[in-house]
Amino acid sequence: MSGWRAASGGRIERSRPIEFHFNGRRYVGYQGDTLASALIANGVDLLARSFKYHRPRGLVAYGADEPNALVEVGEGARREPNVKATQVRLVPGLVARSQNCWPTVGFDLMAVNDLIAPLIPSGFYYKTFKWPVAAWPFYERLIRRAAGMGRAPAEPDPDAYETVHRHADCLVIGGGVAGLAAAEAALDHAESLVVVDALDTFGGLGTAEEARIDGQPYGAWVEAVLARLRASGKVTLLPRCTAYGHYDGDQVGLIEEVAGAVRLRRWMIDADRIVLATGAFERPLLFGANDRPGVMLAGAAQAYLNRHAAVPGRRCVLYANHDGAYEAAFDLQRAGVAIAAIVDARATVAEALAARCRTAGIRHLAGHMIAQSRGRRRVTGCVVHPVGRPDATVALTCDLILTSGGWNPAAHLFTHSGGRLRHDARIGALVPDAPSGPGGPPPRMVAAGACAGLFELADCVASGRAAGAGETVGAAPMPSPSGEPPVAPVGTASKQFVDLQNDVTVADLGLAVREGYRSVEHVKRYTTLGMGTDQGKLIGLNGVEIIAAAQGKSAAAIGNSRPRPPFSPVTFGAMAGPFVGDLLSPARTTPMHRWHAAHGAFFANVGSWRRPQFYRRPGESDMDAVVREASNVRRQVGLTDVSTLGKIDLQGPDVARLLDHVYVNGWSTLQPGRCRYGVMLREDGAVMEDGTTTRLSDDRWFMTTTTGNAERILAHLERARQVDLAGLDVTITPVTEQWGAMAIAGPRARLLLGALEPDFAIDNAALPFMSMAEGRLAGIAARVLRVSFSGELAYEIYTASGDAPAMWAALVAAGDAFGLMPYGTEAMMTMRIEKGLFVPGFEADGRTLPDDLGLGRMVSTKKEFVGRRSLGRSAFTAPDRKQLVGLMTVDPTRSIPRGAQIIRYGSASLPAPVPMDGHVTSVAFSPELDRWIALGLVAGGRAALGETRIAASPLTNEMVPVMLCDPVFIDPEGRRLRA
Amino acid sequence: MRIPCPCCGLRAMAEFTYGGADVTRPAAALPLDPSAAPDADWNDYVYRRDNPAGPHRELWFHAAGCRRWFAVTRDTRTNAFLSEAVA
Ligand SMILES: [Zn+2]
């Protein structure tokens, strides 16, 4: 219990105490606390156990770089695992728990791993558990349980999420000094700006309160800039908003924490200019047992003190290698913390700084390093010695060790979509590279301030202004403020953790290099360096420098591993946004949907449409319903909803030329009032689509497409009109939503149509097969097409969508006298299989040519059309192509396995693989034939009608003898549909 | 990412359908007898596409907009649109 709350200071509201629970105990913090700062102030220093060795761990960092303090927040459906305590705002009633420890954080059974640590070297899991392969899932489960990476809630997420897409002329990521300077400068160049910061407030963390900018105190400057941004009316300020990814086309994904009805809001912002002013993460210095609770980054301790008045210790040793870190010690001393010593790895320190230490009465050990910490569950001291003289040790007593090995630009987003980082020896860190043409940084992203490796306040302001004004791309190289490259000595002690979250030590990295790993990316994967939820933000160049040193190389020479999105974890709820449940894939319903639902329809998803599959009556099985519906169409009359068909209105003098180009058959001879069936190909000759197009008048046509192809055919027609045949006078209008459509089919269909009192003639001479009439039907304006998909006498009736339910109701009412029943897609499919009609996606599978489907004679030889030239290719005219055939089981009581392969007799005994002759494409029970039938594609099938094959299904372990037959099972002469 | 439609200006990529490389269809010039024209030209048109790291002339369809097909040059390395779109 070392942490405490300073009596004054910080940005917390002491008048607003907040009660919360951690690991079952009640604590009190204040408004303005994070869970991390409140735990420090309450003296809680043991927060977690480490991933591999289950060593006790405490807080190290202030923000997204925290590796240790992973907690579960919330309960029940709102429980969220793997949350960093540093990023949890304290709210009343907050409940949080440590994870990765069992049964409790204080007494962890898995801590025995620490005692056998020498037995768990790099790649231990790979080496030990990779054999036998089949056992890996078993081992993996055990490892994951022991690792305790939190538990996801089992209940549905009760919270609401939003997704917002927007565009900005300029997006500034990071609202510290550089970001604010950039935003202000951009006001003159941009009409719309978005400025985001991960914290509650703008102004950043890296600037001392007493600093001055443009002659103003820092705080006043921040407020003045914010006021100007707000007054401009151009700027959206988003606090509590973290950019997690930078994607192609300069789109940035961000997560905003929203207090209110919405929990998180995900922004996808397209920006013409992106200023990356994300600051820097502090780099720790390494020493033995540097993972003990009480070892913390200097800047983190300073931030906890200055923002929350939370003080992480009573007696402190600062271990640093640069001047800036000293301020943490001076700040803490002013708050009442005893400074046991400042240990500086540099041999010489500027006299002014040394004098400040003397004045403050702080013991100053220049040219020294910490060898290791002392203590058990908490730091009680440390051992230091002069760099290079490990024998001359000095013991120091303290409960807090602050380290600072310099700063690493938080340039993660810079690399997400192609930018490169450059090793900057001046600061011992990776900085965004200057523009270098292709493969260089994304063209619109500019780094500024600490993210660009500029740590002096004046440089931050200047680089921010330049970036906001659009003057620089990439990071402009700036002169070094202090010339010496940093020193970061690494001692020989054991348990020097480079990656705290994944328990990767200096020794582990050395072992990986001795085992032959060279590239940073390979060592990373082998040792899991930087692969935790913190994405190794804390590691900085520590890992790279150790890997380089083990190979006798410089850090610059071996490169670095590339950070990838997300910058910090994004919860699934935010990714899904509001698009869950009914909104996941919004359903399209037809005008008659309510009637279907009220009359027992079972719906099938057809693309985004809901279509009645069948209407089951009480006591019926699904199969019973389908057989009844199909039989009723064949014997009396059925009614089905075909509103989902794609419908396209074509107008202009050149429509026939357009249709000639996209269909294999000719269209210029089609007379007004007549319909024609057509087939479309892709340029590679494969059948893409079939459907009916009707000529309404000389220059007006009406096309229907299959339900699933509506959008694709529209694009195809527009491409033919605008690109291939540029200059055609045709207007193409999609009218799928404007027309409701229903089909009546069966021998009594004409009687039913007549009962609706059409004001146009419907006898066979006036309205023959493949013709069209328009007029009033049941008093409603309608377009009637005499076309058939069932092989029966049939009519498709089109009305305005709003009139469709009335037309449907009129048909149902009049249909009673004729035995009318509604039928769904299953009965429709049964009847089209009986008629041998192909469907794109089943028989026409993207490899099927017109001739394969028996449509060779339909193909015009007198005109050019899409795909024509491909039909002449030698492979496309081979006699052993797979052709559409009908299939009947030799034993009429047996069914045909769906998706079965067609093989020849005797071939099953041949050496594997068994030659496949073809496959089954569609299967149905035919009520008309009282047996199972199928359509299939079989090599050379048309020449083999009457022969038997085997339908083999390894999935159902069936081998069913089938006979090849003509695919048209019913009424091959077409008498019924012309009746 | 936003795409420059010649009719509507810069619009979100989600409104567009990609149409592949802008290749000229040779079919109109081919004789109706397939054997009278070499397979090679047609094969190039149907199957063979360059895959440049750099400027790429390609077609886009403003499906959820004005339904214009247009050609535009995009640098495949940066996704920057390099030319004004033409219909
Ligand atoms: Zn457009």
UniProtKB/TrEMBL annotation, chain A:
InterPro entries: 2Fe-2S-bd_N, BFD-like_2Fe2S-bd_dom_sf, FAD/NAD-bd_sf, FAD/NAD-binding_dom, GcvT/YgfZ/DmdA, GcvT/YgfZ_C, GcvT_C, GCVT_N
Protein keywords: Oxidoreductase
Gene3D superfamilies for this protein: 2Fe-2S iron-sulphur cluster binding domain, sarcosine oxidase, alpha subunit, N-terminal domain, BFD-like [2Fe-2S]-binding domain, FAD/NAD(P)-binding domain, Probable tRNA modification gtpase trme, domain 1
Molecular-function GO terms, alphabetical: sarcosine oxidase activity
Domain SoxA A3: from-to ranges: 494-577
Domain annotation GCVT N-terminal: ranges: 592-863
Domain of life: Bacteria
Domain named Aminomethyltransferase C-terminal: residues: 882-971
Pfam families listed in its UniProt record: Fer2_4, GCV_T, GCV_T_C, Pyr_redox_2, SO_alpha_A3
GO biological-process terms attached to the record: tetrahydrofolate metabolic process
Domain FAD/NAD(P)-binding: 169-427
SUPFAM superfamilies: Aminomethyltransferase beta-barrel domain (SSF101790), FAD/NAD(P)-binding domain (SSF51905), Folate-binding domain (SSF103025)
Coiled-coil parts of chain: none
Oxidoreductase recorded as keyword: yes
PANTHER family linked to this entry: AMINOMETHYLTRANSFERASE (PTHR43757), AMINOMETHYLTRANSFERASE, MITOCHONDRIAL (PTHR43757:SF2)
Annotated NCBIfam families: soxA (TIGR01372)
Family per record: Belongs to the GcvT family.
Protein name: Sarcosine oxidase subunit alpha
UniProtKB/TrEMBL annotation, chain B:
GO biological process: tetrahydrofolate metabolic process
Organism: Prosthecodimorpha hirschii
GO molecular function: sarcosine oxidase activity
Highest taxon above the source species: Bacteria
Pfam families the UniProt entry points to: SoxD
Protein name per the record: Sarcosine oxidase subunit delta
